[in-house]
Please model this.
Amino acid sequence: DTLEPVMTYPSSSRATFSSRLICRKGRSEHRYYHPFGFRYATLTVRESTTPLHIGVTLHRTGYPVELCGAFRSSDPLLEQIWETCAWSQQNCMLDAYVDTPWREQAQWWGDARVQAWNTFHLSGDSRLFQRGIRQIGAQTTDDGVTYGHAPTMAHNCVLPDFTLIWIITMWDNYWQTGDLDLFRSQLPIIANALKYFEEHTGKDGLVTYDDRYWLFLDWTELFKDGAPTVYNLWLVLALEKLAELDTLTKNKTEAARCQRWANRLRQRLRKLIDRRGLLRDGIDTKGRIVKSTSPHAQTMALMTNLAPKSAAKMERFLVDYLKDESKHTSQPSAYWITYVYTILAERGQGRAVIDHIRPNWKPMVEQGSTSEMFTDHVEYPMSHSHAWSAHPLFHFMQIIGGVRQTAPAWKRVSFTPVFHGDHGGATIPTPQGEITSAWQRDGDHIAVSLDLPKGVTAAVDLPGVKIKRAIGRSEWIVAAE
Model:
């Protein structure tokens, strides 16, 4: 007879934390110094010959998050999802952003980027993010690639795609704060990283997979060999953000070099668009264009505006994907799907995003924290305390609250709420002060309000409203849908 396979943790993820106290005679008191992420604890007593009186006290350790952001909705599940995401984000903020308070407690930089977006909407605090950018930049390989998390001794955790994300987070920090000093301080590390990608560019002009390192991209069956499309689009995005930052810091020569490089990549990648207007997933080691067309590739093509004439078809592909995931082997994880949600919401598909979040995050509400993976997409148990999937926190505030940043340091925003339910709104902390939105259905009309701090201007898009610009406090009455 054949044995059924046993479901086990991957060896790198197996963790059971414990501490031991050897008691002296009389009263003993001890406080363990290492923070553990856990839900349940077992106390084991060994070799005791006399009665014991034991008192256990829990001390919580975490970053001092000042909770300023808020989300309001008449849909109770959405509010519960938001609260679960907010709690998960707080649990994953120690002296650094960590992937999970359980297991390795590591500052993985793909995770940290999403966690920073959560934090900006929850508290507006950028200090942990800036510290992490410096830590990642302080530890590189000899050929310039940053480690996937830092500080670390794990030399098997070098992720070139996370190096590109690290470069892009220079832009994220500038976008949130308006400050360029951190970018300036990292210029030598960025220059060395770019040399690596130049040296690993193939004859066709695309960056290729380096089997010495871990090309992550996402936890899914995404094409990663040869010259992957998603990998190269991360490079396009990094180069173009660098070009903008170099322009802002008066480095015109470097800005022009980065933009020329990005343009060459764009030209080559456009040749991978098929007759349906969808972007293929890359070129294999034999120079053949692969047949697959993943949600990841379409998302990043829209993020980079790679092919404006095909954008509507790519958008439709993603909306259809959210409705029926079963047709795709390369399914975005609970982490990576934040990019799908972001681009679709920006393109007016906020309702499709909400409809996908509700059933996928409901199990996370029931377990009290956001998961590393979607619960029905895993082959083995993983962390149930991962803030890289806490991103509905800011998606709800942008979609139902309607407020989305459109300029550095939040000096300009757009205001386009999706009227899901009977009422909704959000409060978002910004460097300029708090922005508060609210709306309420009243029969066949909806009362809408927006409060902006001094120095912030909103581009308004509401049904039937002709005034497209707002400052200070504004109120409108619009027809219900």
